[in-house]
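ARCHIVE RECORD
Type: protein–small molecule complex
Small molecule: WQD
Source of inputs: curated submission
Record status: active
Notes field left blank by submitter.
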Amino acid sequence: MSNQGKVLVTGGTGYIGSHTAVELIQSGYEVILVDNLSNSELSVLDGIEKITGSKPQFEQFDLCEKDKVSKLFNENEIGSIIHFAASKAVGESVEKPLLYYKNNLLSLMNLLEVMNEGKSDAMVFSSSCTVYGQPDKLPVTEDAPVVPAESPYGNTKQVSEEIIRDACKANEKINAIALRYFNPVGAHESALIGELPSGVPNNLVPFITQTAAGVRPELRVFGNDYNTPDGSCIRDFIHVVDLAKAHVIALERILESKQKSNFEFFNLGTGNGYSVLQLIDAFEKVTGKKLNYKIVDRRPGDIEQIWADTTIANQELGWKAELGIEEMMSSAWKWQEKIAGK
Ligand code: NAD
Ligand code: WQD
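STRUCTURE (tokenized, with ligand):
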């Protein structure tokens, strides 16, 4: 049984971290959010407070600084960690690989070190479906091979999983679950928190909403000549609130000693694949807005199609995504309208 205490949410003002903080608080957990604000804003804390009625404890520092990490654990009773903090832009990671390796691996190592020192024994880690590359079989199961990563970012997720696996093997007192997210989209239904991409978005949904809002003149659809029914790529889009809820459940699996081994990993998707063109269609139907888009060449590095087999997550975690593509699109649009109005 893991020691109780506060839940440390690293990257807690980020997109997925903030939604998870809300679910944790609403489930009765005391949280501490840590973030260096390299890719998020302090105002996210106000959104969390408005939704939950309580302002979470927040510490601003860089998790690569071991002395600060140690100080945090010495000054607070932290029972468990949900580790979201990382740099996540695939393209940028190709330009600045060392920055990605350093930030994503050092922050993780610092946390595992304090766990090894006995200061906490539970970690839920943000991994990614990127570890599968283009799988041979769809839907992709957790036992599909992890293939050489397409980008330094993807490699940090593979190496992180290996580091955690080895750390858990060497120290049976520490417990971890890696969650392999598919494509998280959407926002909290309150539109008080959501995704805040800085600059030009890399990901599809913020690009769609910004185009519909007139922030971007047009959306470029990268390729319609793939071997898919409509020629565009297929992804497993998952609502960020469903994803956030899965973190609370994964944490409880560790805290209640329900794990089958002290390192486990699960796919988190809906189990349904939607093409880029289907997603655009869903967005137009839900919002009544016509999207200005054109088909352009394929984007280098994109895989053709992937969606999750969620059987193990369904059975072991007792978790299933509940929100569909309509809720994903309507909440993303409501959030876009909210931030555009600020
Ligand atoms: P995000 O950028 O919104 O959140 C990450 C947060 O971590 C940011 O607020 C950033 O300021 C903070 N951060 C980064 N490095 C830090 C450091 N060294 N010290 C302290 N804070 C730091 O990203 P997100 O979409 O919420 O992603 C969360 C996690 O999920 C990441 O690990 C990401 O790789 C992973 N993931 C994301 C997606 C996705 O599509 N969003 C998919 C799969 C996996
Ligand atoms: C989705 C689809 C694009 C933008 C990335 C990371 C992955 C994971 C999730 C963290 C693709 C198409 C996109 C645009 C488009 N992140 N697209 N026009 O590439 O599936 O995954 O985020 O772990 O590691 O690689 O997501 O949202 O960028 O793209 O046509 O302007 O939308 O080609 O088919 P992706 P995405």
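CURATOR ANNOTATION: The mean pLDDT is 96.
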